[in-house]
Structure formats: C-alpha cells, structure tokens
Please model this.
Amino acid sequence: MRLVWISALKDLKALRRDPFSILFWMGIPLCMGLLIHLVFGGSEVTPQGKLLIADQDNTIASKLLTGAFSQPPLSKMLVTETVDPAAGLDRIGHGEASAYLLIPRGLQAAFLRNQPFRLQLYTNPEQRILPNIVEQSLSMMVDASFYLQKSAGGLWRGLDVPTAPDAQSLSRMSLGLFQRAEALGKYIYPPLIRFEVETIQEKRQNPNVAALFFPAMVFMTMLLMANGLSGEIWRERLLGTARRLATTPGSFAAFLGGRVIVVVLVYSLVASVGVAATRWLGGPQEGHLPAAAAWATLTGTVFYLLLLPLSLHASSERGADVMGNLLVFPLSLIGGCFFPFEMMPHWMAAIGRLTPNGWAVTQFRAILSGSAEPAKLAVGSACLMAAGAAAFLLSVRRLRGVFLA
Amino acid sequence: MIDVDHLRKTFGDLTAVDGVTFAAQPGEIFGLLGPNGAGKTTTIGCISGLLTPTSGRVRVMGRDVVNEGQAARRLLGVAPQEIALYEDLSALENLQYWGGVQGMRNPLLRDRVRKVLELTGLQDRAREPVKRFSGGMKRRLNFACGIVHAPRVLLLDEPTAGVDPQSRVHLLDLVREQARAGACVLYTTHYMEEAEALCDRLAIMDHGRVIAAGTLAELRSLLGERDLLRLTGVFPPAAARAALTGIDQIEVVQAEEGLLMLSLAEAARKLPSVFSALASCGADVRGATLTQPSLESLFIKLTGKELRE
Model:
C-alpha cells in the first residue's frame, strides 16, 4: 500500500510541474460550454425552417389555410414564403426549404360544395422535425375544415358565387353562423365543472439547447482524457523507468494503483468543472451536481482503465494513439458524446445507448435531471468497478510480461 | 555475492547468452567485457530479474532470482545502460521515489538521499528538473538512483556510455567507493582501458559466451607477454604465412588481403626481419601498429578480431 502512495505522489509531483496538462483537460468542457453558450445564447431556442407556398386558388379559404402557418406557435418555427409553382418545386428539389405546399385552383369551391380536394405537400427528406411539423399541422387543418363543413356547411354556400356576395347574403350567413354557434355552445364552451391544477413542486426550467449538448461534451472530454492518460504509460517505457522498476522489489500493481489514484483526482477535478459549467448553462439543480460529478469521475476512470490494456497491446506509442483514436472517436459519435441522442435517427440512438459511454451519458443526464434510479445506478457502478478491476489486472500482467521486453 | 551458473537465454532462434558461468564476491568489482551484442546486457537483465533465464541458475547473496525474485531484488541496485529517470521531477524527487520503491523510509531515506547527492556532486542542482541536466549529470543521477538504498550487490551496465572524460573519472571513483564499502559490483563495459583500470576480475564475453576469465594478471599471462603487430597493406595471405615461419616465436593471428595481425615476443627488435620476410613474398606494407600486451590484444588473440564498438 505504501508503494501505491509513493507512486501516486511521484505522479502528482510530475503534474504539479506540468499544470498545463490539467488546465488543458479542464479547458475542453469550459471552451465547449462557452462556445455553445455564445452560439445558442443559453436560452430556449426553437429551430426555424422555411415553408414555400404556391397558392393557385387565391380565395378566402386558401388565404385562411396559408395564414394559419403565420400564426403562433407555427410562426415561431416556420417562415412562410409565397412562390410560383415552378420555383417552389425547383427550390424544394434543391433542399432550400423544409416543405413546399401547392394549393391548386378550386380549394374554396370544393370546400363549399363538400367535394374531395387534393393539396400537394413536398417535404425535404434531409430534415426530420420541421417537415413533420408542417405535415401534422396541415393534417389538423384539413380535419378542422371537415368538422366546420359538417357543422355549418350549408351556411357557407352563399360564398359560392362568381362575384362578391351582397350585403343581404352576408347578413343571412352571419345570423345563421351565430345561431349555429349558440346551439353548439354547450359542447364547445368550457364545461360547468372546472378543474384547477396546482403544481406544488418547484417549477423546473425547460432544458435549453446548450444544456442539452453540454453533458455530451463533458463525456467527450472524459473519453479524450481516457485516451490521452492511458497513452501516457508509454512515457514510462520510453524513459526506461518501467524497466528500472522491474529490477526493484516494487510491484507493477502498486505502481499502476498509484497512477489510478492520480487519474481519479484529475477526473474529479475536470468533472467538477464540467458539471459546474452545466449548471451555469441552466442545467440541473445544485443538489444533483455532486452525484453527477462522482458519476463522471467513476465512468471516466473506468474508460481509462479499459483503454489501458489496449494501449499496452500496441507496438509503439504512436500505435497506441492511433488505436485509441480509432476506438474513442466512433464511440463518441455514436454514443451520444458528440451529438445528443435526441438529434440522432432512432435506430442510431438505440445502438448508441448500448455503448459503454452511451449508457454512461444516459445515466449522467438522468442524474442531472433528478430522474436516476438509485438501485440501477448502484448496480451500474458495481459493474463498472468490476470491469475496471479486470482491466487493471490485465494491464498489470501485460506491463510485466511484454511491455518491458 | 553473485553466482551465475550455466546461464542461457534465448529469444526465439537467437541465443543471446550461452552457458555463462562466473561468480563475483563482496567488495569486488567484477567486469564483463565484450563488444556490443556479446550478451553482457542480457546477462545483467537475467541477474536483475528483468529477464527470465531460459536455463541455468542465478543467485544473488544466495537468493535465486527466479524463485525468490523479490527477496533477490531487495539486495540489488541497478544502473541501467539507458538513463532511466523521470525528467519532469527533480534529482531529489527521483532519488526519493527510487529509494521509496526500494522500501526505504524517512529519516533514513532523507539522510541517504542527501549523502548520495553529495557523493555525485549534484547537491547544488538537487531541486532542478532533470530535463535541464547535462548528459553527464543525468548519468551521475542514474547511478545515484541505483545506490540510494546502499545495495549489497550493484549491477552497472555500461554506466559511462556517452559521458565526458571528467564525469567518467568521477563515476569510476564512485564505483570504487561502493566496492570499498563492501558491495559486490558487476560492471559491464566495452572500454578495455576502463576495465583494466577498474576491475579486480574480468570475464571476456563474445557471442553470448565467456571466452576468458580471471584477474587482469591471469588474462595477460594468456598472451605470454607477446606484443601484437598490426600491419595494413597488400598481402598474399598464404605466401605471407609461409615467409614468416622462419622468424622465431611468431604467430599469425589473422591474415587477409589487406590486414595482417601477428603475435610475437620482443616485436620491436624483430620488426626488420618481419618487413624483410614480407618484402620477399611480394607484400606491400603501408602501415604498422605495435600494441603492448593488453585486454585489447588478448581479445584479438582469442577471437581473431578487434573489439567492435
């Protein structure tokens, strides 16, 4: 045990003489956080897309339909632009908008006569969310027009004339609509029994985009650190100190144990900074921060231990670096450490959540949001520690057997 | 003491050490002399526990290095051929670390570190990072880390390689001091003059084998007080050999087209006869070097070749 401490002390002294390495690791989440904050402003941001509309009908009905897209909340997400049909088709073909809606001539007439009619909606396959919103909104408007037609279809027919309706017709329609509304009032006005819902728990802020990204960034830093720190074992070989250690009574297990202690300290420092930055970006409640930092430290240390045998199996320092990068970068990308799972296709997110880092990120976010299950976390922690211990023993064996040759 | 008995170490098809046997006593500096690739470092590696012998036995103060490895390593101090130091740490921190790894504790460790820093002349730069040290200073510290725990057996693998003359003299004095203090020192080198000046006993190695062993006097006696004459030029080998047979107490060690090596007593007196004989067989002598009996000449006599760098 004393040798573990001596080894840890030696590495801490080396770190003290090279504080930039720690500052560098701490700088990654801080820089990422700052950039995300600057880009997204730290506030709730709604993605905005473009809806192209070609209105060949140009009637009251078609104006009502297109006008609906200019009303909140759709207007927050979509900018509408009127185009002619050829330009609309060309631009959606080049991916310049989220969707293109073509309203052919005859919409109003078909509505008034209760006849089938066909609207044409083209969506951009490169986008996922906004075209879907347009499609769903349009579908809801079509449903609404159906019920409007069913409830007051006869009254609208006064509009089905080639010229503008006269004052008498308009008065008759207005009166009819008023009477129909009164008759339906008992169904569409608020019911007599009113429910009042009072939220007792503290209001939680909606997570903003920065807070959504940042946990992923913290874990990307953890993975990059694991790769860098595990590769440092090669310095011991290049310096000749690993060979010298083999000629002493000191054990490699104690030597590596000391390194692991320092790695835990470095991770806890970086994780604390990362979690604090998450809080700054409007993320979790303060009470969850220590648990989140502890989880990031534990998982980061296990990532380090898992990458260590890989590094020791490489034939050179450069080889270890390449092998580590080949593993770390794909894992970061698919495992939710670069893009949040919410931004991935469902199938990819499902695979990503099964990766070690994907699982760790999911738990990390659960801890931050206060929805983590303690029992599940305890089992997960035990599994992580077992995997880390196995990797540790493998590394000691490898260090002693082959790394010195 | 170090007891090496029929040590053999192979790496695949390559036999690096082939049946090496020797014993070194406490207070003695035992030299392993030989060219690069002779098997000296592999022998040291097997003694220090860095390598596992393929066969044979190595004991350090009676402890088997394979079966009682940790106990044997507690008695050992090693100064490896390559400098093995933490460059980011200071000399003081390096010594504290390696002393601690050897099981030393304060205040003994602190006293010993101070003493070793004084011995190696590094006390003034003790708190500086090693990366700022010169090559010679690093060599001295490399040696200091091997002796910080006052080992009973000291393995020094070419400790003066690449060192300036001043630092070399300093290091050799330090080695002698360790032996005087009772340590058993095993010293490998390919510098003949260093081995002659330092070692009480020597084993000369080549191609993984000990080709001669004994005190310096015993080894010199193998030469029979003969000088070594090295001639360069153009020689018909067979004719040269035949022409030289008439000269008393001459031995042709090596005869090639451009090189002729002769071992002979009182060479200076016989030089005219040698040149005359060679001229009679059509040889063209362009250069001559006469060497007094030494380990260098012994090595050439034993192996038929010069000691390689």
